[in-house]
Write a structure and sequence with these properties.
single chain, 1445 residues, mainly beta, five-stranded mixed beta sheet
Length: 1445
């Protein structure tokens, strides 16, 4: 069988909402990405604003010939190419920007269809709860657990029972649109599901008449870990009441076809408005104005309703009800051609936005048809409620401003104004599905078709308006606090407005759209939807220095995906590992350690007495300075250990002479600075040397025990100014502090006394120092103001790991006792606390290094505890504070907790040395803490698995490997020619000065992602190996015009429409991977769209049988229902041309070789077939084999009749076995023969299967067919003519079905698996292993790889054990999530024997367990221990076998 593993999380945003979810973190933003829930907080930072540079200029390699010379005094031949360079400054402005900071995320085994904020006082944290709606009518109420620092499930409600489905002829539940709505005052929530069912979930509020006495008591702690279904429980204090289901037809008999509903503001009882009709909307039947808007108020106690108003005769193109807060109030009905406002009294005001409105409705509307807007897919959110301003984001990303004219308490009209591009009206490039207000001047724009943005705005004000008193912005919580609107003295249905909201401000010229300026504050990376994928090689200009420098750090291939829609159409270039930007490289085989330091020069005595604040040169201070020295630890060929120092200047490396630095002193273990960068510290194995800023030796501290006379060797060191921690080979520690000498005001080193006996008697394995700048580990003692007291020097902490696996934390200002002790850290529990105790007999993990470091970027960074295992695997812990009783004075041991973070990456095995080489001694290389590498605060892991631990403000920590061989020395590197970069020496003796590419994103997906904007839909992408170029089949929208020269319709020539329909026109773009720009473009005819682009190896000569790799393009010509759809096949060759001046990459162009018109049907898919250089063309309802003739025609030689619409055709290379997928009639498995030319049907699947994509998956000598349908199911089929149920192979066997949820595989690539056993398999004549790389519209990349029988049994058992052991967020069932839906038609003859595909998402959670639980689960699954499980997971999870990407 197979294993399905998701490689990247979903990136397409579906829903978002703001709420007070995490205590103490302000207003949080909850974002749902199909099956991923993320919780953010906002942070206002000062950021630079500058116009982005054109990619044409930024990606062209610059000549660096002036760095080619060597230095005369460079004894080691070090290149200087990375040190010089003039910095080109760009003037930038600074402004405050709202940034997102990720607090938590949870992968849910379900499809999220809605989010709602529930404000209740009965949560554990005292904050809001979050109600999540899932597909198939399920609700989960979750809240934040401050003690576990994660989500916890309060209750589960499901309404998918058969008795709720209504009439027996009703369709299946998944065929209806289910949506969630919540009352603004959090009194109830409603889930519309099925044809006309409404589930009401009431919530207990303080203003309820029942159980009022419960609110006088403090909420008791409760255990809600078990699932509470539909309110049937024995716990009295729950935030909800039992739910009930209402039939909409019982509310009103006319509610037969509900369209949308929403709860309204300013009502004392839960009240919702619903848009519905008594008949289906239809333009073809001439129906018009038959929609009705009704408002109902609910009595939750009596489970009854009352109709408040009903307005009929509404246009049938309305599709959404938007509730409006005060002072506007009422509801806004959104249609495709109009906007209609209905106030609380039933008064209607509307505006027509295009000329089609007059034909679509007779409803009275204000005419603004000159705007020519299309409101399909638009979203609306409040911008300034007190001014009656709302923001509209259209389907194409353009923005408009909706203004309400308010007279007193009545809305008198609506007005729409487009926001010009000059003030940011076009900064959104894709469709938006959610608009969420983040604060006074920021809004989150969630998009499924591109990057989601945080958009901010500012309003221009003149001098007179600045003097006016500000109107309070009562919309900071967007009406989320509207329960405060209730007036105890008013028993009427409508609540009174607060005084702030009674200030009704009429729309004036000061609120026009031209006075608003919008800009992008932040963005969430998205690679959704992924339409097509291909793989190719990276390219450079011939003989360029960049090509020479990048040798050895570039992957063999890269995956290129066509992503996005509309203006957000882009190419996403994906690489598994980081490919650094190499500034310079040189041979440095003897380097074993690198450290760059920036130290202040000693101030001359002539300047020391200058007390009047006179200017002192920058050489005597370090802020903003470049690195000055580099200390290198060396081991020569004879094993002799030395250390050298180099000066880093603008001209290059310079070997320093004439200093007191002694190379023969020994091997440098660590180097750094102390005393506010005034002292350079060199840690040797036997001593510590202290130098001033000019490398003058000032002090030597030997490692000599005066009592015993022993001379322990230093293994590792850790700096935290003014302290230095040394770990020695006798498992002891040595502490050094730099203190100011009173005589000459200079820093001197001295040993720090270890007062605690534990420090001197305990055997220490590893340790580090950490400067707690954010007071995460601050003392919880309080002063009179209730704030933590932090004395000078208390922010520096020492973390030590004992030989017994215990974690000790000391504050260096007081070493008399540890401030925190966790005895069982080496058991790697999911949550670590001071009172955690592991069970006896539990095995421990061998931890070789402990490091506490800040991870993040310039926006936000926070400390993490990083544990390095013996095999170089990493475990992350995030520290957090929780005080059970805030009023008490708790110690750090009572309030500090560590939460284990997921990390599914595995370290590479050590490199095997060649047989003729002498094996080098293995030297332990410590992790390197880097404070600023291209803006990242990161940690580097050296050794055989070099990796960066990278985290951005919008992601969790990710382990991203460094492309190339092992690393044996690394250091940050900050010079004029390489700002905020790093230098490293690999295991092959090559040193490189590099930078992290700034045009790539690493943290959000855990791999290298580079997006290249194209500006239009990219439907297909293909790589052409001979020219090393990419060909993209794109489509752009343009107005459709009727043919003026049609002889049968003379009236078409007189057509003059201002509001024309939009159609697509195809564009074939030739893209150079050197600069990732379009270097050639071919525009197709009107209404001709590109459907597929493939690179095929075709025969171009019948006489010589010569073959070439050519580009084949399949198109469709669709000019409406009056004309039949036609198709075309284009065959192009890419030829060399003379490049343009200054653009050497434009040296190729597309040349048309053949063109074939298909009179009936579109060309929907192409592939190679056979061994004679022919192509298989899916044209209309036929699949035809064609050959390229020398006269430029495509000769058909064989065909097969199909049914409806062929979505994909594939051939197993060189075999003639073909696979055709029909959009409505399943999968066809056929064979092609060349003598004679013939296509034969071998087997078929069920004819009721809607197939999006189909591909082959070979497994040894077996061949499987993988088909994905419209519901997200992956069907595994097999052709087996010997099986009795297959009717001699005419029916394909159905092995299993697996549900991917919303991640429907619409594109696939069959890739080889790179393993060490390939050579042996080739000898046994077995084909190499292969896997399928799958892509989905949600941005998820996944693999489907075959498993051996033994591996399948053990991994399947392991996944089952984990599913029953691990807690699952939102109380969902991961097994049920992966099962096919009950109404899924059988794709073939069932022969699966109850087997299913192994869920890799469950296997990745194996590392979440502690070592004890790992051993237990491994034993139950048939493994000998956790290490054996790790070895097998390493071969099936993540990008295993795909390291060539």
């Amino acid at each position: 069988m197979q294993c399905y593993t998701e490689l990247t999380p979903p990136t397409a945003v579906a829903h978002s909402i703001t709420l007070q979810f995490v205590p103490g973190q302000g207003t949080n933003l909850a974002v749902a990405k199909s099956s991923l829930l993320q919780i953010f907080k906002t942070k206002v930072v000062s950021a630079e604003i500058e116009a982005p540079a054109s990619p044409i200029h930024t990606n062209i390699p610059k000549s660096t010939g002036r760095y080619g010379s060597r230095l005369s005094n460079d004894d080691d031949g070090l290149e200087a190419s990375f040190l010089g360079g003039d910095s080109l400054g760009t003037k930038v402005d600074r402004a405050n920007s709202t940034k997102l900071v990720l607090l938590a995320e949870a992968s849910l085994p379900g499809i999220i269809t809605g989010l709602a904020r529930i404000k209740t006082r009965m949560t554990t944290s005292g904050a809001d709860a979050l109600l999540i709606a899932f597909k198939d009518a399920r609700l989960s109420l979750v809240e934040w657990d401050p003690k576990r620092h994660t989500l916890t499930t309060v209750s589960i409600h499901y309404y998918e029972q058969d008795e709720l489905q209504g009439a027996p002829w009703a369709s299946n539940l998944e065929n209806y649109v289910n949506f969630l709505a919540a009352d603004p005052a959090s009194r109830c929530a409603a889930l519309k599901f099925g044809p006309r069912n409404l589930a009401i979930l009431p919530f207990r509020q303080p203003d309820e008449d029942i159980d009022m006495g419960d609110w006088d008591e403090a909420p008791k702690s409760r255990d809600l870990s078990g699932a509470i279904v539909n309110g049937d429980n024995n716990i009295e204090e729950t935030p909800y009441s039992p739910s009930f289901v209402l039939r909409l037809s019982n509310l009103d008999p006319t509610l037969l076809h509900p369209v949308h509903l929403a709860f309204l503001y300013q009502y004392r009882e839960p009240t919702f408005g619903i848009l519905s009709s008594t008949m289906h909307a239809s333009n073809s039947l001439g129906r018009k104005d038959h929609f009705t808007y009704m408002v109902f108020t609910l009595d939750l106690q009596q489970k009854a309703s009352t109709t408040l108003l009903s307005i009929g005769g509404l246009p049938q193109d309305l599709f959404r009800v938007v509730p409006l807060p005060a002072p506007v109030g009422g509801a806004l009905l959104v249609g495709t051609n109009e906007l209609i406002h209905i106030d609380q009294s039933g008064k209607a005001n509307g505006v027509a936005v295009n000329p089609m409105t007059k034909q679509a409705t007779s409803f009275s509307l204000v005419d603004q048809s000159e705007l020519n807007l299309r409101l399909e897919g638009s979203v609306i959110e409040v911008l300034t409620p007190e001014l009656g301003e709302f923001l509209i984001v259209l389907n194409d990303g353009r923005m408009a401003l909706l203004n309400f004219r308010i007279d007193g308490r009545t809305v008198s009209g609506l007005e729409i104004k487009m926001i010009p591009s000059e003030v940011g009206g076009s900064i959104i490039s894709s469709r938006a599905v959610s608009l969420t207000r983040l604060g006074r001047n920021a809004m989150f724009v969630g998009s499924p078709d591109g990057d989601s943005l945080v958009v901010g705005w500012s309003r221009k004000q003149d001098a007179a308006s600045r003097k006016r008193s500000r109107v309070p912005d009562v919309a900071l919580d967007l009406g989320l606090e509207d329960e405060d609107l209730d007036d105890d003295d008013d028993d009427d249905l409508y609540g009174e407005d607060p005084p702030a909201k009674q200030q009704l401000v009429a729309t004036s010229s000061a609120t026009k759209g031209g006075d608003l300026t919008f800009r992008v504050h932040d963005r969430l990376l998205s690679i959704a939807p992924i339409r097509k994928m291909t793989f190719g090689e990276r390219d450079w200009l011939p003989d360029s220095e960049e090509a020479r420098n990048s040798a050895g750090v570039v992957s063999e291939l890269q995956v290129v995906c066509s992503v996005g829609r509309g203006k957000a159409g882009s190419l996403a270039i994906l690489n598994v590992e980081m490919q650094p930007k190499v500034i310079g490289r040189f041979d440095f085989p003897e380097a074993r350690g690198l450290w760059t330091v920036c130290a202040k020069q000693p101030i001359p005595k002539s300047l020391q007495g200058d007390k009047d604040g006179g200017a002192i040169s920058n050489d005597y201070d370090t802020p903003g300075q470049y690195d000055k020295f580099m200390i290198v630890a060396k081991v020569d060929l004879d094993g002799y250990e030395t250390s050298d120092v180099y000066a880093l200047t603008a001209a290059g490396f310079e070997s320093l002479t004439g200093t007191e630095f002694e190379p023969a002193a020994g091997f440098t273990v660590e180097a750094g600075t102390l005393g506010k960068d005034s002292r350079i510290i060199q840690v040797l194995k036997s001593e510590v040397r202290c130098y001033d800023g000019n490398l003058g030796l000032s002090q030597i501290i030997p490692m000599l025990d005066e009592v015993t006379g022993a001379e322990p060797r230093v293994l590792s060191a850790s700096f935290a100014d003014p302290y230095l921690l040394l770990i020695r080979d006798d498992s002891s520690i040595f502490l050094i502090v730099a203190r100011v000498d009173r005589n000459n005001a200079e820093y001197e080193l001295e040993e720090l006394e270890r007062d605690d006996e534990i420090l001197t008697t305990t055997k220490w394995l590893t340790g580090c120092l950490y400067t707690d700048t954010d007071a995460v580990f601050a003392d919880s003692s309080k002063d009179g103001n209730g704030k933590g007291v932090e004395k000078p020097g208390e922010s520096i902490l020492m973390f030590l790991l004992g030989a017994d696996g215990a974690l000790y934390i000391y504050r260096l200002s007081d070493l008399s006792k540890p401030i925190y002790v966790a005895k069982d850290l080496s058991f790697l529990p999911p949550g670590l606390s001071a009172d955690f105790t592991a069970r006896k007999g539990t095995s421990k993990e061998k931890i070789t290094e402990l490091l506490v470091a800040d991870l993040g970027d310039t926006t936000h960074k926070s400390p993490y505890l990083i544990l390095r295992h013996e095999n170089d695997d990493l475990t992350f812990y995030h520290p957090f504070r929780f005080r059970s009783n805030p009023s008490s004075n708790s110690s750090l041991s009572d309030t500090l907790f560590f939460s284990k973070l997921p990390n599914s990456s595995f370290a590479k095995p050590p490199e095997e040395a060649p047989e003729d080489d002498t094996p080098r001694p293995v030297r332990f290389l410590s992790m390197r803490r880097c404070t600023n590498i291209s803006g990242y605060s990161t940690v580097f892991l050296p050794g055989s698995s070099p990796s960066f631990i990278i985290k951005s403000s919008k992601s969790i920590p990710r382990v991203v490997g460094l492309q190339g061989s092992g690393v044996q020395a690394m250091s940050s590197f900050h010079t004029e020619g390489c700002e905020h970069g790093f230098i490293y020496a690999d295991s092959h003796g090559i040193a490189r000065v590099t930078q992290i590419p700034t045009d790539c994103n690493f943290a959000e997906l855990g791999l290298s992602v580079k997006k290249v904007p194209i500006g239009m839909d990219v439907d297909s992408i293909s790589y052409h190996p001979p020219s090393r170029s990419y060909v993209a089949g794109c489509n752009k929208l343009e107005p459709f015009e009727l043919p003026k020269d049609d002889d049968y319709h003379k009236e078409w020539a007189r057509e003059n429409l201002a509001f024309k329909p939009m159609t697509e026109r195809g564009v074939i773009n030739l893209i150079s991977p050197i600069t990732w720009t379009v270097i050639g473009s071919i525009e197709l005819d009107e209404c001709e769209t590109v459907l597929c682009v493939e690179t095929l190896n075709l025969e171009v000569s019948e006489s010589t049988n010569e073959r070439k790799q050519l580009i084949a393009v399949g198109t469709a010509l669709c000019k409406g229902e009056d004309f039949p759809t036609r198709g075309r096949v284009y065959v192009y060759n890419i030829v060399d041309v003379i490049p343009e001046p200054g653009r050497p990459e434009i040296n190729r162009k597309l040349k048309l070789v053949a063109k074939e018109d298909i009179p009936r049907g579109a060309v929907t898919a192409l592939c190679e077939v056979g061994r004679q250089g022919l192509m298989l063309v899916a044209q209309g309802q036929k699949c035809m084999v064609r050959g390229l003739k020398e006269d430029g025609t495509l000769l058909p030689v064989a065909f097969m009749d199909m049914n409806c619409y062929v979505t994909s055709v594939k051939e197993l290379p060189g075999t003639g076995l073909c696979l055709m997928a029909d959009a409505f009639k399943g999968v066809w498995f056929a064979g092609y023969t060349e003598e004679p030319y013939k296509m034969m049907l071998l087997g078929k699947s069920s004819t009721r299967l809607e197939v999006f994509n189909a591909d082959f998956l070979p497994d040894g000598k077996e061949l499987f067919i993988v088909a994905s349908d419209a519901d997200g199911h992956i069907h595994i089929l097999q052709f087996d003519p010997e099986h009795p149920k297959s009717l001699q192979g005419h029916l394909l066997l159905h092995r299993t079905t697996f549900n991917t949820g919303a991640h429907i595989p619409t594109s696939s690539l069959l890739l080889p698996v790179a393993t060490d056993q390939q050579a042996g398999q080739t000898k046994n004549n077995e084909p190499p292993p292969q896997l399928l790389l799958l892509a989905s519209p949600t941005g998820v990349l996944a693999t489907l790889r075959p498993l051996s029988e033994s591996s399948y049994r053990r991994l399947s058992s392991l996944a089952s054990q984990l599913a029953t052991t691990l807690p699952h967020p939102a109380g969902l069932n991961p097994k049920a999530y992966r099962m096919p839906s009950p109404h899924c038609p059988p794709p073939g003859v069932d022969a699966g024997l109850g087997r299913t595909i192994v869920d890799g998402a469950m296997l990745t959670r194996f590392t979440e367990l502690g070592t004890g639980r790992r051993g237990e689960i491994a034993g139950r699954a048939g493994y000998n221990g956790g290490e054996e499980v790790r070895g097998e997971l390493e071969t099936v999870l993540g990008w295993a076998g795909l390291r060539y990407l």
